[in-house]
Protein backbone atom coordinates (compact mmCIF):
# COMPACT_ATOMS: atom_id res chain seq x y z
CA UNK A 1 0.00 0.00 0.00
CA UNK A 2 1.33 3.47 -0.87
CA UNK A 3 2.05 5.74 2.12
CA UNK A 4 -0.43 8.53 2.84
CA UNK A 5 1.14 11.76 1.55
CA UNK A 6 1.83 14.46 4.11
CA UNK A 7 1.44 18.07 3.00
CA UNK A 8 1.54 21.63 4.36
CA UNK A 9 -1.45 23.03 2.49
CA UNK A 10 -2.58 20.37 0.00
CA UNK A 11 0.05 19.76 -2.67
CA UNK A 12 2.70 21.85 -0.89
CA UNK A 13 5.55 19.95 0.84
CA UNK A 14 5.70 20.44 4.61
CA UNK A 15 8.19 23.01 5.94
CA UNK A 16 10.67 22.08 8.64
CA UNK A 17 8.44 23.75 11.23
CA UNK A 18 4.94 25.25 11.12
CA UNK A 19 4.72 28.80 12.48
CA UNK A 20 2.94 28.58 15.83
CA UNK A 21 0.37 31.28 14.87
CA UNK A 22 -0.16 30.11 11.29
CA UNK A 23 -3.64 31.01 10.02
CA UNK A 24 -4.70 30.77 6.38
CA UNK A 25 -8.06 31.49 4.72
CA UNK A 26 -9.02 30.80 1.11
CA UNK A 27 -12.08 29.78 -0.87
CA UNK A 28 -12.75 26.08 -1.28
CA UNK A 29 -12.88 26.55 -5.06
CA UNK A 30 -9.40 28.09 -5.14
CA UNK A 31 -7.97 24.86 -3.78
CA UNK A 32 -10.34 22.32 -5.39
CA UNK A 33 -11.08 23.71 -8.88
CA UNK A 34 -7.62 22.94 -10.35
CA UNK A 35 -8.14 19.32 -9.19
CA UNK A 36 -11.65 19.00 -10.70
CA UNK A 37 -13.16 19.02 -7.21
CA UNK A 38 -11.41 15.90 -5.96
CA UNK A 39 -8.60 16.16 -3.40
CA UNK A 40 -7.05 12.76 -2.71
CA UNK A 41 -6.52 11.54 0.88
CA UNK A 42 -3.54 13.09 2.65
CA UNK A 43 -2.64 14.44 6.08
CA UNK A 44 -1.14 17.46 7.83
CA UNK A 45 0.90 16.86 10.95
CA UNK A 46 0.30 20.24 12.60
CA UNK A 47 -2.54 21.92 10.69
CA UNK A 48 -6.31 21.79 11.29
CA UNK A 49 -9.07 22.68 8.81
CA UNK A 50 -12.45 24.35 9.30
CA UNK A 51 -14.54 24.24 6.12
CA UNK A 52 -17.50 26.62 5.86
CA UNK A 53 -19.59 25.24 3.00
CA UNK A 54 -22.25 27.71 1.78
CA UNK A 55 -23.27 26.05 -1.51
CA UNK A 56 -23.00 22.62 -3.07
CA UNK A 57 -22.27 19.29 -1.49
CA UNK A 58 -19.41 16.84 -1.03
CA UNK A 59 -17.86 14.03 0.89
CA UNK A 60 -14.89 13.72 3.25
CA UNK A 61 -12.64 10.89 2.11
CA UNK A 62 -10.45 9.12 4.64
CA UNK A 63 -9.73 5.91 6.46
CA UNK A 64 -13.44 5.14 6.90
CA UNK A 65 -16.36 5.20 4.50
CA UNK A 66 -16.39 9.00 4.25
CA UNK A 67 -18.77 11.66 5.56
CA UNK A 68 -21.29 13.34 3.26
CA UNK A 69 -22.33 16.97 3.66
CA UNK A 70 -24.71 19.38 1.94
CA UNK A 71 -24.57 23.16 2.29
CA UNK A 72 -24.85 24.98 4.58
CA UNK A 73 -22.39 22.94 6.60
CA UNK A 74 -19.31 23.14 8.83
CA UNK A 75 -16.67 20.43 8.37
CA UNK A 76 -13.94 20.07 11.02
CA UNK A 77 -10.74 18.20 10.12
CA UNK A 78 -8.17 17.82 12.93
CA UNK A 79 -4.41 17.60 12.44
CA UNK A 80 -3.07 14.10 11.95
CA UNK A 81 -6.26 12.69 10.43
CA UNK A 82 -6.21 11.20 6.95
CA UNK A 83 -8.65 13.14 4.80
CA UNK A 84 -9.51 14.09 1.25
CA UNK A 85 -12.55 15.68 -0.41
CA UNK A 86 -14.90 15.04 -3.28
CA UNK A 87 -16.73 18.33 -4.02
CA UNK A 88 -19.63 19.07 -6.34
CA UNK A 89 -19.03 21.42 -9.29
CA UNK A 90 -21.03 24.22 -7.65
CA UNK A 91 -19.14 24.11 -4.33
CA UNK A 92 -18.75 27.46 -2.58
CA UNK A 93 -17.39 28.52 0.79
CA UNK A 94 -14.10 28.91 2.64
CA UNK A 95 -11.48 26.72 4.27
CA UNK A 96 -9.67 28.04 7.33
CA UNK A 97 -6.38 26.36 8.25
CA UNK A 98 -5.03 26.79 11.80
CA UNK A 99 -1.76 25.64 13.35
CA UNK A 100 -2.21 23.12 16.16
CA UNK A 101 -0.04 25.24 18.47
CA UNK A 102 -2.38 28.20 17.95
CA UNK A 103 -5.50 26.11 18.61
CA UNK A 104 -3.90 24.57 21.69
CA UNK A 105 -3.18 28.06 23.01
CA UNK A 106 -6.78 29.15 22.42
CA UNK A 107 -8.27 26.08 24.10
CA UNK A 108 -5.82 26.16 27.00
CA UNK A 109 -6.82 29.70 27.96
CA UNK A 110 -10.58 29.38 27.37
CA UNK A 111 -12.37 26.61 29.24
CA UNK A 112 -15.72 27.21 27.53
CA UNK A 113 -14.45 26.05 24.13
CA UNK A 114 -14.41 22.35 23.29
CA UNK A 115 -11.17 21.01 21.84
CA UNK A 116 -10.92 20.11 18.15
CA UNK A 117 -12.35 16.59 17.53
CA UNK A 118 -9.99 13.65 17.06
CA UNK A 119 -11.56 12.70 13.71
CA UNK A 120 -13.33 14.64 10.92
CA UNK A 121 -16.75 15.91 12.01
CA UNK A 122 -19.63 17.45 10.02
CA UNK A 123 -22.10 19.98 11.49
CA UNK A 124 -25.16 21.12 9.52
CA UNK A 125 -25.94 24.84 9.86
CA UNK A 126 -29.66 24.59 10.46
CA UNK A 127 -30.80 28.23 10.56
CA UNK A 128 -30.14 31.35 8.46
CA UNK A 129 -29.21 33.51 11.45
CA UNK A 130 -26.33 31.22 12.44
CA UNK A 131 -25.15 31.04 8.83
CA UNK A 132 -25.13 34.84 8.53
CA UNK A 133 -23.15 35.19 11.77
CA UNK A 134 -20.59 32.60 10.64
CA UNK A 135 -20.23 34.34 7.27
CA UNK A 136 -19.71 37.71 9.00
CA UNK A 137 -16.93 36.33 11.20
CA UNK A 138 -15.26 34.73 8.17
CA UNK A 139 -15.49 37.97 6.15
CA UNK A 140 -14.00 40.03 9.00
CA UNK A 141 -11.26 37.48 9.58
CA UNK A 142 -10.41 37.48 5.87
CA UNK A 143 -10.18 41.27 5.86
CA UNK A 144 -7.83 41.30 8.85
CA UNK A 145 -5.62 38.62 7.28
CA UNK A 146 -5.27 40.68 4.09
CA UNK A 147 -4.04 43.92 5.65
CA UNK A 148 -1.79 45.27 8.38
CA UNK A 149 -3.81 47.76 10.42
CA UNK A 150 -3.22 48.84 14.04
CA UNK A 151 -4.13 46.08 16.54
CA UNK A 152 -3.90 43.61 13.63
CA UNK A 153 -3.18 40.50 15.72
CA UNK A 154 -5.81 41.36 18.34
CA UNK A 155 -8.46 41.78 15.62
CA UNK A 156 -7.50 38.46 14.01
CA UNK A 157 -7.83 36.61 17.31
CA UNK A 158 -11.11 38.35 18.16
CA UNK A 159 -12.66 37.27 14.86
CA UNK A 160 -11.25 33.77 15.16
CA UNK A 161 -12.78 33.45 18.63
CA UNK A 162 -16.12 34.72 17.34
CA UNK A 163 -16.11 32.06 14.64
CA UNK A 164 -15.10 29.31 17.08
CA UNK A 165 -17.87 30.43 19.48
CA UNK A 166 -20.50 30.06 16.72
CA UNK A 167 -19.16 26.60 15.89
CA UNK A 168 -19.17 25.68 19.59
CA UNK A 169 -22.86 26.62 19.88
CA UNK A 170 -23.62 24.70 16.71
CA UNK A 171 -21.86 21.58 18.00
CA UNK A 172 -23.91 21.70 21.22
CA UNK A 173 -27.08 21.66 19.13
CA UNK A 174 -25.77 18.64 17.22
CA UNK A 175 -24.31 16.46 19.95
CA UNK A 176 -24.82 13.39 17.79
CA UNK A 177 -23.31 14.92 14.64
CA UNK A 178 -21.72 12.36 12.31
CA UNK A 179 -17.99 11.89 12.67
CA UNK A 180 -15.45 9.50 11.25
CA UNK A 181 -14.31 6.54 13.33
CA UNK A 182 -11.31 7.41 15.51
CA UNK A 183 -8.42 4.97 14.97
CA UNK A 184 -6.66 3.71 18.13
CA UNK A 185 -3.38 5.39 17.16
CA UNK A 186 -5.11 8.80 17.04
CA UNK A 187 -6.60 8.28 20.50
CA UNK A 188 -3.17 7.35 21.84
CA UNK A 189 -1.53 10.38 20.23
CA UNK A 190 -4.21 12.69 21.67
CA UNK A 191 -3.62 11.28 25.15
CA UNK A 192 0.13 11.71 24.67
CA UNK A 193 -0.29 15.36 23.65
CA UNK A 194 -2.39 15.96 26.78
CA UNK A 195 0.35 14.45 28.95
CA UNK A 196 2.99 16.54 27.16
CA UNK A 197 0.93 19.69 27.80
CA UNK A 198 0.78 18.89 31.51
CA UNK A 199 4.38 17.81 32.00
CA UNK A 200 6.72 19.28 29.37
CA UNK A 201 8.09 21.88 31.83
CA UNK A 202 9.25 19.16 34.19
CA UNK A 203 11.94 16.53 33.89
CA UNK A 204 9.75 13.76 32.52
CA UNK A 205 11.53 11.34 30.19
CA UNK A 206 9.92 9.03 27.65
CA UNK A 207 9.47 6.21 30.20
CA UNK A 208 7.38 8.52 32.39
CA UNK A 209 5.01 9.23 29.50
CA UNK A 210 4.80 5.54 28.58
CA UNK A 211 3.85 4.64 32.17
CA UNK A 212 1.18 7.36 32.30
CA UNK A 213 -0.25 6.20 28.96
CA UNK A 214 0.13 2.47 29.73
CA UNK A 215 1.63 2.07 26.29
CA UNK A 216 4.81 0.61 24.85
CA UNK A 217 7.43 2.64 23.00
CA UNK A 218 6.68 0.93 19.63
CA UNK A 219 2.95 1.70 20.06
CA UNK A 220 3.60 5.38 20.76
CA UNK A 221 6.19 5.66 17.99
CA UNK A 222 3.71 4.11 15.54
CA UNK A 223 0.97 6.55 16.63
CA UNK A 224 3.28 9.52 16.08
CA UNK A 225 4.48 8.31 12.70
CA UNK A 226 0.93 7.60 11.50
CA UNK A 227 0.00 11.22 12.28
CA UNK A 228 3.02 12.60 10.48
CA UNK A 229 5.27 13.12 13.50
CA UNK A 230 8.75 11.62 13.36
CA UNK A 231 8.91 10.38 16.97
CA UNK A 232 7.47 10.91 20.48
CA UNK A 233 10.54 12.89 21.47
CA UNK A 234 10.03 15.18 18.48
CA UNK A 235 6.50 15.97 19.72
CA UNK A 236 7.91 16.83 23.16
CA UNK A 237 10.78 18.88 21.70
CA UNK A 238 8.44 20.84 19.43
CA UNK A 239 6.22 21.78 22.40
CA UNK A 240 9.21 22.85 24.51
CA UNK A 241 10.60 25.01 21.70
CA UNK A 242 7.24 26.72 21.17
CA UNK A 243 7.14 27.61 24.87
CA UNK A 244 10.76 28.78 24.78
CA UNK A 245 10.00 31.12 21.87
CA UNK A 246 6.99 32.55 23.72
CA UNK A 247 9.03 33.19 26.85
CA UNK A 248 11.81 34.84 24.86
CA UNK A 249 9.35 37.14 23.12
CA UNK A 250 6.82 37.94 25.83
CA UNK A 251 8.80 37.84 29.08
CA UNK A 252 11.96 39.40 30.49
CA UNK A 253 13.35 36.08 31.69
CA UNK A 254 17.00 35.42 30.95
CA UNK A 255 17.89 32.77 28.37
CA UNK A 256 18.98 30.51 31.25
CA UNK A 257 15.62 30.96 32.99
CA UNK A 258 13.77 30.24 29.70
CA UNK A 259 15.85 27.08 29.42
CA UNK A 260 14.85 25.84 32.88
CA UNK A 261 11.19 26.92 32.49
CA UNK A 262 10.81 24.68 29.42
CA UNK A 263 12.27 21.48 30.87
CA UNK A 264 15.91 21.78 29.76
CA UNK A 265 18.72 21.37 32.31
CA UNK A 266 21.75 22.65 30.39
CA UNK A 267 21.62 26.21 28.96
CA UNK A 268 24.46 25.48 26.51
CA UNK A 269 22.64 22.41 25.15
CA UNK A 270 19.40 24.41 25.00
CA UNK A 271 21.08 27.15 22.94
CA UNK A 272 22.63 24.65 20.52
CA UNK A 273 19.31 22.84 20.09
CA UNK A 274 17.42 26.10 19.63
CA UNK A 275 19.84 27.24 16.92
CA UNK A 276 19.65 23.89 15.15
CA UNK A 277 15.84 24.00 14.93
CA UNK A 278 15.12 27.72 14.71
CA UNK A 279 18.16 28.84 12.73
CA UNK A 280 19.43 31.39 15.28
CA UNK A 281 20.42 31.50 18.93
CA UNK A 282 17.85 32.33 21.63
CA UNK A 283 19.37 35.80 22.08
CA UNK A 284 19.35 36.46 18.31
CA UNK A 285 15.75 35.26 18.10
CA UNK A 286 14.65 37.62 20.89
CA UNK A 287 16.54 40.59 19.45
CA UNK A 288 15.38 40.10 15.84
CA UNK A 289 11.71 39.59 16.75
CA UNK A 290 11.57 42.55 19.14
CA UNK A 291 13.19 45.09 16.81
UniProtKB/TrEMBL annotation:
Fetch the Gene3D superfamilies from UniProt: Homeodomain-like, Jelly Rolls
Q: Which domain of life is it from?
A: Bacteria
Keyword set, alphabetical order = Activator, DNA-binding, Transcription, Transcription regulation
Cross-referenced PANTHER family: HTH-TYPE TRANSCRIPTIONAL ACTIVATOR RHAS-RELATED
Q: Give the taxonomic lineage as stored in the record.
A: Bacteria, Pseudomonadati, Pseudomonadota, Alphaproteobacteria, Caulobacterales
Write down what this protein is called. Answer: Regulatory protein
Which InterPro entries does the record cross-reference, listed alphabetically? AraC-bd, AraC_XylS_family_regulators, Cupin_HpaA-like_N, Homeodomain-like_sf, HTH_AraC, RmlC-like_jellyroll, RmlC_Cupin_sf, Tscrpt_reg_AraC-type_HTH
One Gene Ontology molecular-function label:
sequence-specific DNA binding
Report domain HTH araC/xylS-type positions.
186-288
